[in-house]
Each structure stands twice: as C-alpha cells, then as structure tokens.
C-alpha cells in the first residue's frame, strides 16, 4: 500500500516538475502552468486515492487479515481491598493471532512510567491480576489494554481506577437461621459471617449487610438492611411454610457482593392464642352439654331403664285378672275366667284341694313345673306386695307366690319357694279348688302374709281348713328342724322334706306331705303330693308320699296319678273321679273320717277313710302312685 | 477517651461522598507526605505515627477548604449554573469538616503534646498549591483524603477498642 502511494506520489511529482519547467520561462505562462498543475494535482490526488482504495480492498479480499479490533476494559474489582484484577473484552482479532497486553500508570509515580500487567493468568482469560505488591490504595491507576497482531495494534480506552473504590467482596458465609419464640410468636434469628478474605477484624474493611427472605411458594423477596451487625431478627413470618434466606454485603465505598447460598428453614405450625381460646370454648360447651345430659338421665332414669332393659313380661293368662284376685272377689275372678257355675255353689269346700307344701326359705328361687302333665307353672316372687299375716303362725314372714297354671284336666297348685334370707323352711298351704286357680302372692321378709284371696277362701271353708294354723305350726317346727340342715341344694331339700314327711307320717300314718319326685324339668320341687298307696283292709285309703320309686311307675300310669274325689258321702265315702276330667264319675269310694287325724289337713282327713273294696275301685286303677284328688270332699266337712 | 472520641467523631462527621471514578490529572496537595497506602503498611504503622498522619492530613485541608468555600460562595457564575447541590455540599463539607477538624486537631495535639513543627509550612505551601487546583480536582482530593482518614481512624479504633463492631 505504501508502495502504491509512493508510486502515485512520484507520478504526481513528475507531472508537477514538468509543469514547473514549462512555466519557468514566462511569468504568465507560469501562472497558467501553476493553475494547470493544481488542477492536475487535484485530479491526480483523487485518482491516487481511488487507486489506493481499490488496491486495499483487493488486498483484503484476497488475504482477510487486518489489524486487531479495539479491546474494551470491562471492569476492575478488588475483593478485599488488598489486591485487584481487571478484565477486558477483546475486539475482533483481524484473522491473525492477536495478543493483548495491559499497561498501566500510577498517579504517584513518575507520570511516564508505564508498567505492564504483572499477572495475566490468575484471574482467568483476558484478565490482569495485581497482587499485594502492586496494589496501592488511594492512588489512581490509568489502565489500558493494547491488542496487537501482525498487521497492527489497537489500544483500548483508558480506565481510571482507585482501588479503594472498586471493592466488591465475596459472599457472606456460614449463614444460620434459627427459629425462636417471643411471646409465643416465632421469629427467625439469622446469623452469618463475613467472607473470610475480608479483614473486618482489624477495621480495614467495614461491611454492611443486607438480608432477604422469601417463602418457598412466594413470589417476591423481602429485603432488610442489617447495617454492620452480623445477625438479624425477622418477625414477619407465616407459620407452616418453608423460607429461603440469603445475605449479601457491601463495603462502605464499593459494590454489593453476590447473594449468598440459600438457607432453608421451616416454620412449624403453632397454636396461636386465638386457637387456644377456641379450644377452651369447645371444652366448656362440651362440659355443659354433658351436665345437661347427666341431669336428663338422672331425671328420667326409670323410663330409660325400662326403655333400654325392657322387663320380661310375666305370663299372662287370658281373662285372668290379678286385681280381681287380690280384691278377693272370687266370683268375679272365676267369671272372668269363663267358668260358669264354678265352684259349685253348694259347697265350695268340696272342691277344695289342699296339699301341704313345704317351701324352702333359702335363698333360692325355685321354679317348679308340673312337668308330667306338661303343665308349666312359673313361680314368681314379687316382693312388692305386702300381705297380711293372716294364716300363718309365728313362722317366718316369707310367703310364696304361687302362680298356678291352668291345666286342661287337673288343677293343682304349684308351689315355689320364695327366696328368703332366713333360710327357714316353710310350710305353705295350698288351697285349690277344682278347676280353679289360686294364686298365692309372696310377700317380703317382713310380713308374713297369706294372700287375701286365699285367706278369704280359707275362711270360707273354715270347716275344712280349720287345722291350717296348727298344721302350719307343726310344719313350721318341722321346718325349723329342717332349717338346721338347711342348704341350697335341692337334693338336700328333698331330704328335709322326706324327714319332715317321715316325722309327720310317723305321727299320722295317713297322710303327710311329701316331696314330690323331682322331675327332670324342675330343679327342685317343694310341692308335695300325696299318693294313694293302697287300700288297706280297713278300707282306708292310704296315702303315701311319693317316693323315689316313682320311676318304676309305668308310664301309662303317670298320667293317671291324680284322681279327683268327687264327693264324700256320709262322711265316709270318698267319691273318686276317674281320671278323665269328667266330673261325677261313677267311681266312688268311701272313706272314713275317723282314721283321719284331726291335726291333719282337711284334705287329708277327708281323704282317708274306709274305702270299700270294690271292683270299682280296681277300676280306678289306683296304682301305688295313685293320687287322689279330693276335689269333692267338701261336702263332708 | 481519645479513642472513644475518635470513633464518635468519625461516625458522625465524615461525609458519605458518592462514589466517583475521578479523573486525576493532578496530584492532590496532600500526596506530598507519605501515608500508608496498604493494609500491611497501615498495620505496621504504630498508633502514634498513624495519629500524626491523620492530623497532618486534617490540618493540610483546613485552608484549602476555606478557600474553596469562599470561592464557591462568591462565584456568581457558579451559583447561576450549578445546582444548589454543589453549594450545599461545599457548605456542608466545609462546616462539618472544619468543626470536626478543629475538634480532632485539638484532641490529637493535646495527646501529642502539640508537636507539629512542619505543619505551618506544610499548610502554607499546600494551601498555595490547592489554590491552583480546579474545583472538581479539589473535591476529588478531599473525598479521597477523608476516606483515608476514616480508614485510619477505624484501624485505630479496632486496635484500641476491638469489641465494638470490629
């Protein structure tokens, strides 16, 4: 390119010389020649320029190399106010290998002393690092970078640097966030350390800090200026969230550092005082409701009890009105039952069947069933009703509640023993009329009562039951005896009864109460039935207690144990009814009364009598276990 | 007591000057005497010497500041064109700095038994030189020197009373 320029210049020069020679002879010619020279010079210059340009572009297109582009100094930074580094941005390299060099001058030193960068490596690519030796504070550095390649060099714009004002520290370190509570409100105490290279201990650098935090799900950071302290308390927290915490620092004259590493802290949920009061309110309300419920239950205790635990209904006999029975109006009672003309109005006493019963006063409830004829009777003891002691003697006050179930053919009362604490054996008398039911009500411990109906009944038939009390007393005495052996087992009771029975029989030899043979259906029976054993020679109906040998009874006779006595004729004859349920059978018997012990119960007394041996008697099929039901003996009394 | 008063003065009176990359075409008049310009240098300097350096800087600025304030106040052109900010700055700087200067000089001279043989000559020559400086140069030099003094004072404070925020 210079060659071309030289050539152009030479060309111009020659033309100028020629022109000057031409105009040297005459002045006017000289003026003309000068003018022409000027014009030619101009034309030549323009042409030269154009020529040069053409050549240059030709050269560039063919080779692609130029001088380097202008580099740019980006920034200079000092991390701890003791060293610093500068970075630049290189320009285009012009296609050739370009190297960059940094030159600087210092204010304090000689103005012409240009120094080159001592370290190109430490700070990275395109950088210059000044260590402690080369760093002076409060002095202005003039720094520039020169890019140089084969074709040329280019220097950047200078940058004036005072190291004291380009400090940008590293991030703060060791950030810890701790949750604390103050007045039941949580707050975050954030602590950190200055970057380890910044010397704040000696006071060389003074750092100011800034903290920012954000909920994990939040969108914006919340910044707080912390001054020169190394801890900060944050109060604006939402419990139950995870928070991100960051810290940065800045010297008093300098740049902010980068944000530190994020510290995560979780704020646990906590009961706000408002929630506590809500819980207290709920507790108070529940206590009130509980009290109201308890009061309601206390008031309505009984009805609730009956609702939750319905009482077991007792057996109900259709048409049988207990109230009527209590009232003692036997006619109404029986009418209600549907029995017309029963009992026989002539003499009710005929139908009176009595049997002596021994009830065990131990603490047992005895349920007796007349299982043989599929009769069921339940004994119910109710302690609620109080009966007057009209029939018993000085015995215990327990009475029995007898509930007699109706049977189709026979009637007999069943005896159950009431539970009584005294454990005395009682003898209770049962009076039953044929086809009628008697109910004996039990009383509590205190009173010794007979049911009024019974008593009235008995009174009506006084003649037949005159010895009740006496017998009762005897029985009671016997019962007391038995009491000594008192126990709760039914077998023992059977023994007692047997004993009782035996003693009685020893005296009477006619009739005595005996225990009934235990049927499988009943655990214990205190009902005693008299058996017609046989007819002895004196035509006496011997009634024996039913023994254990009941089993030997042929089954067909079981149902025929009982025979009704339809009537007594002339005080000597027992009219026995056949076991067909029909009244007024032809079988009759005669019995004598003389053999009857007056102390015995009326029934017994009446029953025993001379019985003429007659074929009719055999027809009666009075087995050993025959039972005579002296339902018709009333007349004789 | 000296350190405490020093620290208090430092925090209260020194100006927070904006960060500027100044173009230093001329040296500041205070660069005449050596001052520690690095951490090691500063820490190597003992307390008394450092205190003297501080004092020297402060004293050398007394006259130039006064002149500067006067020139700004009386310069009508400047008051027209420049904003009131420059006036405020110069007023404030002069007032505060001078007050502080007086106090500090008094304190330090008392502690050093008032031995400043070279101060008067320094101040006079310095003030002459400062008269020729342009305004922006003066401000730049002033800002730098005040930062330097503040740094020295901090070093002194952390050396004497280390537990207060060092």
TrEMBL record, chain A:
Annotated CDD domains: FN3 (cd00063)
The keyword Repeat belongs to this UniProt entry's keyword annotation: yes
Pfam family, one: EpoR_lig-bind
Fibronectin type-III domain: residues covered: 171-270
Subcellular location: Membrane
Keyword terms: Disulfide bond, Glycoprotein, Membrane, Metal-binding, Receptor, Repeat, Signal, Transmembrane, Transmembrane helix, Zinc
Record-annotated membrane-spanning stretches: 278-298
Cellular component GO terms, alphabetical: external side of plasma membrane
PROSITE patterns tied to this protein: FN3, HEMATOPO_REC_L_F1
GO molecular function terms listed in the Swiss-Prot or TrEMBL record: cytokine receptor activity; metal ion binding
Topological type in the membrane: Single-pass type I membrane protein
The protein's name in its UniProt record: Prolactin receptor
Annotated gene: PRLR
TrEMBL record, chain B:
Keywords: Disulfide bond, Hormone, Secreted
Molecular function terms, GO-annotated: hormone activity
InterPro entries listed in its UniProt record: 4_helix_cytokine-like_core, Somatotropin/Prolactin, Somatotropin_CS
GO BP terms: positive regulation of receptor signaling pathway via JAK-STAT; response to nutrient levels
Keyword Secreted appears in the UniProt entry: yes
Domain of life: Eukaryota
Gene transcribed to yield this protein: PRL
Protein name per the record: Prolactin 2
One Pfam family linked to the record: Hormone_1
PANTHER family documented for this protein: PROLACTIN LIKE, SOMATOTROPIN,PROLACTIN
PROSITE patterns in alphabetical order: SOMATOTROPIN_1, SOMATOTROPIN_2
Location(s) in or outside the cell: Secreted
Broad class of where this protein is predominantly found: secreted
Cellular component terms per the entry's GO annotation: extracellular space
Family membership noted in the UniProt record: Belongs to the somatotropin/prolactin family.
